[in-house]
Specification:
Layout: H1 5-19, H2 26-37, E1 42-46, H3 52-63, E2 67-71, H4 78-82, E3 83-88, E4 93-98, E5 105-109, H5 116-128, E6 130-133, E7 136-139, E8 145-150, H6 163-166, E9 171-175, H7 180-190, H8 205-213, H9 222-236, E10 250-252, H10 256-272, H11 280-291, E11 296-297, H12 299-303, H13 308-318
Parallel strand pairs: 1-8, 1-9, 2-5, 5-8
Antiparallel strand pairs: 3-4, 6-7, 10-11
C-alpha cells in the first residue's frame, strides 16, 4: 500500500474532476468509485433533475471510459439491450450486432420502466459479465459497471424489481435534493447558454484494474469481520440482539451477499481515504447503501412509518462493535 500512494491519489483526482461539473453529491461520487474498484453495480434512486445522469457521464469522461445510456421504456426488448443476430441473405450467414450493454459504464435510466424480460436480461449480464447471442458467448468489457436509476415518486407504468434481482446491486444510493447553498452554485454554474459539462481524463481504466488489486492489501481485523456478521444477523433475528420490537417490522433480512459486499465496500472506503486498514466507521459509512435494499419490511412497518433505513439506524445504535 505504501508504494502505491500515487496510484491511489488518482481516486482523489477523479473525485475532484467530477466535482468540477457536479455540485455536491460527494457521497454518491464516493459510492460510485467504491463500486467501481470493488467490481460492483449501483442502483441510484432519486427524483428527476438531481444530476444522476450527469454524474455518470462525467465519471466516464474522467476515466476515458466507454459509456452508454439506455432509456428503459415499456416497449424495450432484450435484443435492444444485449444485441441480436441479423441474417444476411447475400452471404447466407448471421451477423452479430452487439447492443449498448457492451460498454464500461452502462447507465440504465429508469430501470423500473422496462418489463421483466428486459430487466432480467440486464441483471443476468451483470451477474455473468457475458452475453450469449445465438450459440456464442461474448465477454463484456473490463471493467464493467451498471448504474441503474429509478424514480421513486412516479409509479404509473413501472415494473418493480424483484427482491432476488435487486440483491445483485452492491449499493442502493438515495439521492436527495441539494441544500440552498449548493443549489445556488448549481444555478450559477448551469444557468448559462453553454454550461461546462465536459472534463479531461485524469485516470485510465487500467488504473482502476490495478487499484482493484490493492483491495486485498487493506487489512481487516477479525473483530471487524465479526462486527459485520452481527450487523447482518441483526437484520434477520433482531430479538437475538436485544431488539425484539423490530421483529414484526422485518419480513426477511439481508442475505449472505450483504456480508460479502459490506466487507468489500468497507475495504474500498478505506482504500479511498488512503488507509491501510478497515475501521468500524468504514463499515458504518457503507452499511445503509449496502443493506437497505436487502431487507424486506412488513405492512406493519410501513403503517408505523418505519423503513429499512430507520431499522438500520436502530441496528447500528444497538449492535456493539466489540463483543
Amino acid at each position: 500500500m505504501k508504494g502505491n500512494g500515487e496510484l491511489c491519489a488518482k481516486l482523489d483526482d477523479i473525485r475532484g474532476c467530477v466535482a468540477g461539473v457536479v455540485v455536491g453529491q460527494q457521497d454518491l461520487v464516493d459510492k460510485l468509485l467504491i463500486a467501481l474498484i470493488c467490481n460492483g453495480h449501483v442502483l441510484i434512486e432519486g427524483v428527476p433533475g438531481v444530476a444522476k445522469t450527469m454524474m455518470v457521464n462525467t465519471l466516464s469522461q474522467a476515466l476515458n471510459a466507454q459509456c452508454s445510456r439506455i432509456q428503459f421504456t415499456p416497449d424495450l426488448l432484450p435484443g435492444d439491450l444485449v444485441g441480436t443476430q441479423i441474417y444476411r441473405a447475400e452471404s447466407g450467414e448471421f451477423e452479430t450486432r452487439k447492443g449498448p450493454i457492451f460498454a464500461n459504464l452502462v447507465l440504465a435510466d429508469e430501470i423500473n420502466r422496462a418489463p421483466a424480460k428486459v430487466q432480467s436480461a440486464l441483471l443476468e449480464a451483470m451477474q455473468e459479465r457475458q452475453v450469449t447471442l445465438g450459440r456464442v458467448s461474448h465477454k463484456l468489457p473490463e471493467p464493467f459497471m451498471v448504474l441503474a436509476t429509478q424514480n421513486p415518486i412516479e409509479q404509473e407504468g413501472t415494473y418493480a424489481l424483484p427482491e432476488a434481482q435487486i440483491d445483485r446491486f452492491m449499493f442502493k444510493v438515495i439521492v436527495t435534493y441539494p441544500d440552498m447553498d449548493e443549489e445556488q452554485r448549481i444555478m450559477q454554474r448551469m444557468a448559462r447558454s453553454a454550461p461546462v459539462t465536459t472534463v479531461e481524463p485524469v485516470a485510465t481504466l487500467d488504473d482502476i484494474i490495478v487499484i482493484r488489486a490493492l483491495l486485498d492489501e487493506v487489512y481487516m481485523d477479525v473483530k471487524i469481520e465479526r462486527y459485520i456478521l452481527r450487523l447482518v444477523a441483526a437484520t434477520r433475528q433482531p430479538a437475538d440482539y436485544n431488539m425484539p420490537d423490530l421483529t414484526p417490522y422485518i419480513r426477511f433480512g439481508a442475505s449472505p451477499r450483504a456480508s460479502i459486499f459490506l466487507a468489500l465496500a468497507a475495504r474500498g472506503r478505506a482504500l479511498l481515504r488512503g488507509a491501510e486498514f478497515v475501521t468500524p466507521d468504514d463499515v458504518k459509512a457503507v452499511l445503509h447503501d449496502v443493506v437497505r435494499h436487502r431487507i424486506a419490511i412488513t405492512y406493519r412497518a410501513e403503517s408505523d412509518g418505519m423503513n429499512s433505513s430507520s431499522i438500520l439506524d436502530r441496528i447500528v445504535a444497538t449492535v456493539a462493535v466489540d463483543e
